[in-house]
Write a structure and sequence with these properties.
Elements: E1 7-13, H1 20-28, E2 35-41, H2 48-54, E3 60-64, H3 71-81, E4 86-89, E5 95-96, H4 100-110, E6 114-125, E7 128-130, H5 140-146, E8 159-161, H6 162-165, H7 180-188, E9 193-206, H8 211-214, H9 216-235, H10 243-251, H11 259-276, H12 283-307, H13 312-317, H14 330-346
Parallel strand pairs: 1-2, 1-4, 2-3, 6-9
Antiparallel strand pairs: 4-8, 5-9, 6-7, 6-8
Helix pairs in contact: 5-12, 9-10, 11-12, 12-14
């Protein structure tokens, strides 16, 4: 067997033959060439294995599972076989831009206190490149805050230290299926800081066959459980019961149509913010967190107002202290109110 590579890319594949060639090509286009791909095929019924083996690259290692066990089982098996000092996440339908590994390896080499580094990400939607929906730029303190209310990192953008991940048992937890990446970030955080390179080096493909679309019910339930447990670990009996609201309106981006729910959500966020601020939180982090809360308030209000379910005056009345009206430009306020009024009349 050849010498261990610097980077092991772990991938679960299942019926991905149509999109795998583009993903594999993005790996082969990396300017940093010292990587291996450990792909565990999870009982595909299409030509996924043939595509993987046909690429003709000795860096691609294929492990076949006779029975479909799901992505957590497949990735755990891939991680067990990984030989690299660093491990990269990558789904079968997402893409790496050419400098991704070079930039991330250099980052971890230069920052021994960092356990995981992600990159900014844009989306592929029907063949078009569109801006990502994740907050940026992300400083470490803001990442810590956001992980209390949503998943701020894209799995296919992360690179982390294998030695830290090997201290976890198991690597990914089956009970967190479809939010296993979010759970993993929290568990890795115990071993170092989480950073993000604020350069787009990853493309996330959005399509109807993605796991986030197909398994939304399971994902929602597991995300609620994960957030609820995090809040209770932080605050005990004083933890606000807003996990379901966070999953539906913040992570799921459903339009909020009730002033009382909006107020309840941001009162809960304020409780989390107060506890978060009690830690080793510097002025830059506090300012970034408050700015993000303000942006979140307006994003949720805008969606609710434009849906016709939330009145503009009710949204403003429910505004928390941390939310600045400056985030809502007057023209956008007016336009959102008019759009919402028309939709309310139609409904």
């Amino acid at each position: 067997m050849s010498a261990a590579p610097t980077v092991s890319v772990i991938m679960a594949t299942y019926n991905g033959a149509a999109l795998l060639p583009e993903t594999l090509a993005s790996l082969q286009a990396q300017t940093f060439a010292d990587w291996e791909l450990v792909a565990v095929d999870d009982g595909s019924r299409d030509d996924s294995v043939a595509v993987l083996r046909g690429v003709g690259d000795p860096r691609v290692r294929v492990i076949e599972s006779a029975v479909n066990g799901g992505p957590v089982v497949a990735r755990n098996r891939a991680f067990a076989a990984a030989r690299g000092r660093y491990v990269a996440g990558l789904d079968q339908d997402d893409l790496c831009l050419p400098d991704r590994f070079a930039r991330q390896v250099a980052w971890l080499d230069a920052n021994p206190g960092t356990v995981l580094v992600s990159t900014a990400t844009e989306c592929l939607l029907d063949g078009r490149v569109v801006p990502g929906q994740w907050p940026r730029p992300l400083i470490p303190g803001l990442i810590d805050w956001l992980m209390l209310v949503q998943n701020p990192l894209v799995w296919s953008s992360v690179l982390f230290r294998a030695d830290a991940a090997r201290r976890l048992d198991p690597f990914e937890r089956p009970e967190c299926r479809y939010v296993e990446d979010f759970d993993l970030y929290h568990r890795l955080r115990a071993f170092g800081r989480i950073d993000q390179i604020d350069t787009v080096l990853t493309r996330y493909r959005q399509h109807a066959g993605g796991a986030s679309q197909v398994f939304s019910g399971t994902m929602t339930a597991h995300a609620e459980t994960l957030l609820r447990n995090l809040h209770r670990a932080l605050l005990g009996d004083r933890a606000p019961d807003i996990a379901g609201l966070l999953v539906r309106y913040v992570m799921g981006r459903a339009p909020i149509g009730d002033r009382a729910l909006l107020r309840r959500l941001f009162e809960g966020i304020a409780v989390l913010r107060a506890r978060f601020g009690e830690g080793a939180c510097d002025a830059e982090t506090r300012a970034a967190v408050d700015r993000e809360i303000s942006r979140l308030w307006w994003r949720l209000c805008r969606a609710g107002i434009r849906s016709g379910r939330l009145k503009l005056r009710d949204a403003i009345a429910a505004r928390p202290d941390a939310a600045a009206l400056a985030d809502a430009h007057p023209a956008d306020l007016l336009a959102s109110g008019m759009i919402g009024a028309v939709r309310a009349l139609r409904r």
